[in-house]
Amino acid sequence: MSAPVVGFDLDLTLIDTRAGIAATYRALAERSGVAVDTDAVVSRIGIPLAEEVAHWFPADQVDTAVQTFRELYPAHAIEVSRALPGAAAAIAAVRDQGGRVVVITSKLDRLATAHLTHLGIEVDAVCGNRFGDGKVAALREYGAHSYVGDHLADVRSARAAQVTAVAVATGPYDATALAAAGADVVLPDLRGFPEWLARAPIAQDSPNATR
């Protein structure tokens, strides 16, 4: 049987990308001449890139702006982003139970991997360009035990995939909102994850297919 899997979101779950995302949008605004309110952008981290870009660019320019943002991102966002408190210990806790860690994120694989490599965070797989139903499919594909995220959409994806929804209040939503969305457990941050996992051991069998 494949090793059990815990899925983690990336932005504002494992790493704090706020400064890097804001810097990249400032560079995009400078290059394009289109004004962007980076405070508003940061308050919505977690939604798909094209959806955020559409707040600022005309519809016929969104695809180009998304491509430009992704080109600018490595130079502006990787070095300034930081691991969130408890990230390394959370991953270690999964490994200590013989599990695997899969990062399931709306970021492209290469950008997510660049962040993880820069911060020295080792995971077993990265599944990028996923949001909503895409995360549901990934959780099922990997046979996940649980999914850890900071966004209401992460909670909804976990519940739709019938895995344990673990929410951390390190993103745009507080504990009350995450609980109301249906999270099975809400933690202030990842520092509480190892203790929770010790009380909720990774299931050795899953209703989802494993890979």
Can you characterise this structure?
- Helix content is 45%, strand content 14%.
- The protein is α/β, with parallel strands linked by helices.
- The chain folds into two domains: 5-16 and 82-199, HAD superfamily/HAD-like (Rossmann fold, 3-Layer(aba) Sandwich), CATH 3.40.50; 18-77, DNA polymerase, domain 1 (Orthogonal Bundle).
- Strands 5-4-1-6-7-8 form a six-stranded parallel β-sheet, with helices on both faces. A two-stranded antiparallel ribbon has the order 2-3.
- Strand 4, helix 6 (109-119) and strand 5 form a beta-alpha-beta unit.
- Helix 1 (18-32) packs across helix 4 (62-77), helix 5 packs parallel to helix 10 (193-199) and helix 7 (133-141) packs across helix 8 (152-160).
- The mean pLDDT is 95.
What is this structure's SSE topology?
Blueprint (H helix, E strand, L loop, with lengths): L4 E4 L6 E2 L1 H15 L5 H6 L5 H5 L8 H16 L4 E2 L3 H10 L3 E5 L4 H11 L5 E3 L5 H9 L2 E6 L2 H9 L3 E5 L6 H6 L4 E3 L5 H7 L12
Parallel strand pairs: 1-4, 1-6, 4-5, 6-7, 7-8
Antiparallel strand pairs: 2-3
Helix pairs in contact: 1-4, 5-10, 7-8
InterPro entries: HAD-like_hydrolase_sf, HAD-like_sf, HAD_sf, PGP-like_dom2
GO molecular function: phosphoglycolate phosphatase activity
Protein name: HAD hydrolase-like protein
